[in-house]
Design goal:
mainly alpha; 3-stranded antiparallel sheet; Double Stranded RNA Binding Domain; 61% helix
Length: 229
């Protein structure tokens, strides 16, 4: 079985995208791995391409979904969707880190969970999809990846990013940062996640088809119980 075969199955079941095995392996190949294995092709060119596709699709979706928003706001909204941290969250929700081909040193230093490497790999996967299937299916793939963020891009931060809003509340009240307890049930291709978080005696729970969605729902549940300022 080639590296990334399980990820290929996951992408197909979750997004309807099947990437050619050779392209998929290249999309998962970090430069640290290439340098240790005779300079095999890395994912950097695919990352470059995927970044462009991602930016275009995000801009188009924001333009269509928020017709009253000025250019300055659309630019900020796009940055919040396609920047390193949100892409890394997408990668973690898909378990991409375990499939990335890393050099020994990078792997030993936790490279599979670094935001920069995870986000670059997501862009490389988008690039690989574009190369394999063209702009139409690549666009479908991107819309499925960021659809939830597009939907909430125009909402207040506490709704669009409740986990960050909850951390900010804890910091303001000199409370420890929230810690989430997440469990899952179901087969690997259709896991259902449940998250629980407690802040200052207030408990919130949430469910979702991805860990990040369950945690967001739990954070939002806590925020909804906080006393008004």
């Amino acid at each position: 079985m080639y590296p990334g075969a399980d990820l290929r199955t996951r992408l197909m079941s979750d997004f309807g995208v099947s990437i050619d095995p050779e392209l998929l392996v290249q999309a998962l190949t970090h430069r640290s791995f290439a340098h240790e294995h005779g300079d095999v092709p890395t994912n950097e060119r695919m990352e470059f391409l995927g970044d462009a596709v991602l930016g275009l699709v995000a801009a188009e979706e924001l333009y269509r979904n928020y017709p009253e928003r000025p250019e300055s706001e659309l630019t900020q909204m796009r940055a919040a969707i396609v920047s390193q941290q949100p892409l890394a969250e997408i990668a973690r929700s898909l378990g991409i880190g375990e499939f990335i081909l890393l050099g020994k040193g990078e792997r030993d230093h936790g490279g599979g969970d670094k935001d920069s490497i995870l986000s670059d790999t997501v862009e490389a996967l988008i690039g690989a999809t574009y190369i394999n299937h063209g702009s139409e299916l690549a666009g479908v793939f991107v819309r499925r990846l960021i659809g939830d963020r597009i939907l909430h891009a125009g909402e207040p931060a506490s709704v669009a990013d409740p986990k960050t809003a909850l951390i900010e509340y804890c910091n303001a009240e000199d409370l420890p940062n929230p810690e989430y307890i997440v469990t899952s049930v179901g087969p690997a291709h259709a896991l259902k996640f449940t998250a629980r978080v407690e802040v200052n005696g207030i408990v919130g729970t949430g469910e979702g088809t991805a860990k990040k969605h369950a945690e967001k729902a739990a954070a939002l549940a806590v925020l909804g119980q906080l006393p008004p300022e």
